Amino acid sequence: MSTVVAVRSADGIVIGAETLLMQGEARLGHAYGDNPKLFLVGHSCIGLTGSVAHYTALIQALRSLGDDCRLGSNEEVFNTFTRVHKRLKDDFFLNPKKQPDDPYEANHISALVANGSGIYGVYAHREVLNFGRFWANGTGRPYALGAMHAAWQLGGERPDALTVARQGLAAAMEFDRGSGGEMRLYRFEVGSNAAPQPVD
User: Which pTM was predicted?
Assistant: First the structure.
Protein backbone atom coordinates (compact mmCIF):
# COMPACT_ATOMS: atom_id res chain seq x y z
CA MET A 1 0.00 0.00 0.00
CA SER A 2 1.81 3.05 -1.30
CA THR A 3 1.83 5.70 -3.98
CA VAL A 4 4.69 6.50 -6.34
CA VAL A 5 4.29 9.13 -9.07
CA ALA A 6 6.46 10.25 -11.97
CA VAL A 7 6.01 13.21 -14.31
CA ARG A 8 7.83 14.28 -17.48
CA SER A 9 7.44 17.75 -18.95
CA ALA A 10 9.64 20.22 -20.84
CA ASP A 11 11.10 21.57 -17.58
CA GLY A 12 12.23 18.21 -16.18
CA ILE A 13 11.38 14.75 -14.92
CA VAL A 14 10.17 14.31 -11.34
CA ILE A 15 9.61 11.12 -9.36
CA GLY A 16 8.02 11.15 -5.92
CA ALA A 17 6.58 8.94 -3.21
CA GLU A 18 5.01 9.23 0.21
CA THR A 19 6.63 7.65 3.28
CA LEU A 20 3.84 5.75 5.07
CA LEU A 21 4.56 2.06 5.71
CA MET A 22 1.75 -0.41 6.38
CA GLN A 23 2.35 -3.54 8.49
CA GLY A 24 -0.94 -5.36 8.30
CA GLU A 25 -3.45 -2.95 9.81
CA ALA A 26 -0.75 -0.86 11.51
CA ARG A 27 0.28 2.45 9.94
CA LEU A 28 3.92 3.39 10.50
CA GLY A 29 4.47 7.05 9.70
CA HIS A 30 7.79 8.73 9.00
CA ALA A 31 8.31 9.46 12.71
CA TYR A 32 8.75 5.73 13.38
CA GLY A 33 11.64 5.31 10.98
CA ASP A 34 12.85 6.19 7.53
CA ASN A 35 10.96 3.88 5.18
CA PRO A 36 11.95 5.03 1.69
CA LYS A 37 10.13 3.91 -1.43
CA LEU A 38 12.54 5.78 -3.73
CA PHE A 39 16.03 4.36 -4.29
CA LEU A 40 18.96 5.84 -6.22
CA VAL A 41 20.66 3.34 -8.52
CA GLY A 42 23.38 4.88 -10.68
CA HIS A 43 21.86 7.90 -12.45
CA SER A 44 18.31 6.62 -11.98
CA CYS A 45 15.72 6.66 -9.23
CA ILE A 46 13.47 3.65 -8.72
CA GLY A 47 10.13 3.93 -6.92
CA LEU A 48 8.68 0.71 -5.53
CA THR A 49 5.21 -0.26 -4.40
CA GLY A 50 3.89 -3.60 -3.21
CA SER A 51 5.69 -6.02 -0.94
CA VAL A 52 8.36 -4.44 1.24
CA ALA A 53 10.32 -7.68 0.79
CA HIS A 54 11.27 -6.41 -2.69
CA TYR A 55 12.77 -3.17 -1.49
CA THR A 56 16.08 -4.48 -0.19
CA ALA A 57 16.44 -7.50 -2.48
CA LEU A 58 15.66 -5.72 -5.75
CA ILE A 59 17.81 -2.68 -5.04
CA GLN A 60 20.79 -4.80 -3.93
CA ALA A 61 20.42 -6.97 -7.04
CA LEU A 62 20.32 -3.90 -9.30
CA ARG A 63 23.31 -2.24 -7.63
CA SER A 64 25.31 -5.47 -7.83
CA LEU A 65 25.23 -5.19 -11.64
CA GLY A 66 27.47 -2.11 -11.52
CA ASP A 67 27.95 -0.61 -14.99
CA ASP A 68 25.76 -3.37 -16.46
CA CYS A 69 22.73 -1.81 -14.75
CA ARG A 70 21.50 0.18 -17.73
CA LEU A 71 18.12 1.90 -17.51
CA GLY A 72 18.15 4.41 -20.38
CA SER A 73 15.58 2.89 -22.75
CA ASN A 74 12.77 0.34 -22.81
CA GLU A 75 15.17 -2.31 -24.10
CA GLU A 76 17.84 -1.54 -21.49
CA VAL A 77 15.30 -1.59 -18.66
CA PHE A 78 13.90 -4.90 -19.90
CA ASN A 79 17.36 -6.49 -20.22
CA THR A 80 18.46 -5.26 -16.80
CA PHE A 81 15.33 -6.50 -15.02
CA THR A 82 15.58 -9.83 -16.82
CA ARG A 83 19.14 -10.29 -15.48
CA VAL A 84 17.99 -9.21 -12.03
CA HIS A 85 15.11 -11.74 -12.08
CA LYS A 86 17.58 -14.63 -12.13
CA ARG A 87 19.56 -13.08 -9.27
CA LEU A 88 16.38 -12.59 -7.23
CA LYS A 89 15.54 -16.27 -7.61
CA ASP A 90 19.05 -17.68 -7.10
CA ASP A 91 20.37 -15.40 -4.35
CA PHE A 92 17.31 -13.88 -2.68
CA PHE A 93 14.86 -16.81 -2.96
CA LEU A 94 12.13 -15.02 -4.90
CA ASN A 95 9.03 -17.20 -5.23
CA PRO A 96 8.02 -16.70 -8.89
CA LYS A 97 4.78 -18.67 -8.70
CA LYS A 98 1.59 -16.81 -9.46
CA GLN A 99 -1.08 -18.24 -11.75
CA PRO A 100 -0.68 -21.40 -13.87
CA ASP A 101 -1.89 -19.59 -17.00
CA ASP A 102 0.56 -16.65 -16.70
CA PRO A 103 2.50 -16.25 -19.95
CA TYR A 104 5.84 -15.78 -18.15
CA GLU A 105 7.33 -16.44 -14.75
CA ALA A 106 6.37 -13.56 -12.46
CA ASN A 107 8.61 -11.42 -10.26
CA HIS A 108 5.72 -9.61 -8.49
CA ILE A 109 7.49 -6.24 -8.97
CA SER A 110 5.74 -2.92 -9.52
CA ALA A 111 8.31 -0.21 -10.16
CA LEU A 112 8.65 3.22 -11.74
CA VAL A 113 12.11 4.04 -13.06
CA ALA A 114 13.01 7.68 -13.74
CA ASN A 115 16.17 9.24 -15.14
CA GLY A 116 17.14 11.87 -17.70
CA SER A 117 15.97 9.63 -20.54
CA GLY A 118 12.40 9.27 -19.32
CA ILE A 119 9.93 7.37 -17.16
CA TYR A 120 9.55 3.58 -17.33
CA GLY A 121 7.09 1.28 -15.60
CA VAL A 122 8.23 -2.28 -14.86
CA TYR A 123 5.68 -4.90 -13.90
CA ALA A 124 5.29 -8.54 -12.85
CA HIS A 125 6.25 -10.25 -16.11
CA ARG A 126 9.08 -7.81 -16.84
CA GLU A 127 6.90 -5.82 -19.21
CA VAL A 128 8.25 -2.29 -19.63
CA LEU A 129 6.09 0.72 -20.46
CA ASN A 130 7.33 4.20 -21.35
CA PHE A 131 5.30 7.17 -20.07
CA GLY A 132 5.54 10.47 -21.95
CA ARG A 133 3.62 12.64 -19.46
CA PHE A 134 2.90 11.06 -16.07
CA TRP A 135 2.00 7.84 -14.30
CA ALA A 136 1.47 6.43 -10.81
CA ASN A 137 1.75 3.04 -9.10
CA GLY A 138 0.31 1.74 -5.86
CA THR A 139 -2.99 1.80 -4.05
CA GLY A 140 -3.24 5.58 -4.37
CA ARG A 141 -2.88 5.46 -8.16
CA PRO A 142 -6.50 6.35 -9.07
CA TYR A 143 -6.43 9.49 -6.91
CA ALA A 144 -2.94 10.47 -8.06
CA LEU A 145 -3.77 10.03 -11.76
CA GLY A 146 -6.93 12.11 -11.47
CA ALA A 147 -5.14 14.93 -9.66
CA MET A 148 -2.17 14.85 -12.05
CA HIS A 149 -4.46 14.93 -15.07
CA ALA A 150 -6.18 18.05 -13.71
CA ALA A 151 -2.88 19.72 -12.79
CA TRP A 152 -1.43 18.91 -16.21
CA GLN A 153 -4.42 20.53 -17.94
CA LEU A 154 -4.16 23.62 -15.73
CA GLY A 155 -0.47 23.93 -16.65
CA GLY A 156 -1.38 24.92 -20.19
CA GLU A 157 1.33 24.56 -22.82
CA ARG A 158 4.15 24.13 -20.26
CA PRO A 159 2.99 22.10 -17.25
CA ASP A 160 5.42 22.14 -14.32
CA ALA A 161 6.51 18.57 -13.53
CA LEU A 162 7.07 19.28 -9.84
CA THR A 163 3.65 20.86 -9.39
CA VAL A 164 1.93 17.97 -11.17
CA ALA A 165 3.80 15.37 -9.07
CA ARG A 166 3.00 17.15 -5.81
CA GLN A 167 -0.69 17.37 -6.70
CA GLY A 168 -0.78 13.64 -7.45
CA LEU A 169 0.87 12.68 -4.17
CA ALA A 170 -1.29 15.11 -2.21
CA ALA A 171 -4.49 13.56 -3.57
CA ALA A 172 -3.30 10.01 -2.83
CA MET A 173 -2.24 10.96 0.69
CA GLU A 174 -5.61 12.61 1.29
CA PHE A 175 -7.85 9.80 0.07
CA ASP A 176 -5.92 6.49 0.04
CA ARG A 177 -5.69 4.88 3.48
CA GLY A 178 -2.39 3.22 2.55
CA SER A 179 -0.65 6.49 1.63
CA GLY A 180 0.54 9.22 3.96
CA GLY A 181 3.46 10.61 5.90
CA GLU A 182 5.72 12.98 3.98
CA MET A 183 6.50 13.55 0.32
CA ARG A 184 9.90 12.65 -1.11
CA LEU A 185 10.73 13.95 -4.59
CA TYR A 186 13.67 13.94 -7.01
CA ARG A 187 14.10 15.97 -10.20
CA PHE A 188 16.10 15.09 -13.34
CA GLU A 189 17.02 17.28 -16.30
CA VAL A 190 15.58 15.89 -19.53
CA GLY A 191 18.33 14.31 -21.63
CA SER A 192 20.97 14.56 -18.90
CA ASN A 193 23.00 11.71 -17.41
CA ALA A 194 23.44 13.64 -14.18
CA ALA A 195 22.22 12.29 -10.86
CA PRO A 196 18.85 13.60 -9.68
CA GLN A 197 18.45 16.49 -7.29
CA PRO A 198 16.31 16.03 -4.17
CA VAL A 199 13.44 18.49 -3.94
CA ASP A 200 12.27 20.01 -0.65
Answer: 0.89
